[in-house]
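Researcher: Re-running this chain for the archive, since the previous output was lost when a drive failed. Same request as before.
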Amino acid sequence: MLSRLRRRSGRGPAGEVGAAAAAWPGVVGPAVADHTVPVRRSRAGMLTVVCSSAAWAHELTMRREELVALLARAAPDAAVTGLRFSVADHVPSAAPVTPAPPPPPAPRPEDRARGEDAAADVADPALRALVARAAAASAARHRDP
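Model: Regenerated structure tokens:
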């Protein structure tokens, strides 16, 4: 009865992920470990790992055999015989979501005039237009708000 309780609570041989979880970051590296969490090991040794996105789950599924071999070397006590990857929304993503920077200010007529003055000595008309646009954009970014 005690062994059944341990299996249900995730302790004991069937649910133990301690050794595998401890070895996981060293096996997959910090970038992958930030997007994955080993959560359960079955009696047969199948380790379930939840991922922050389907892309991570797919990529790791393609490397499953390699990862099982690396886990076997890194944590032989974990007795992992296979890996199963699934997606869970509670695995934090490593990269924080940051808002996009605001677009640069549009050149004003006085910025365009500065740009045309800066490009006046360029002989080629197409190149002169490009230099004038670049100089106008630069003047718009560096003007006082």
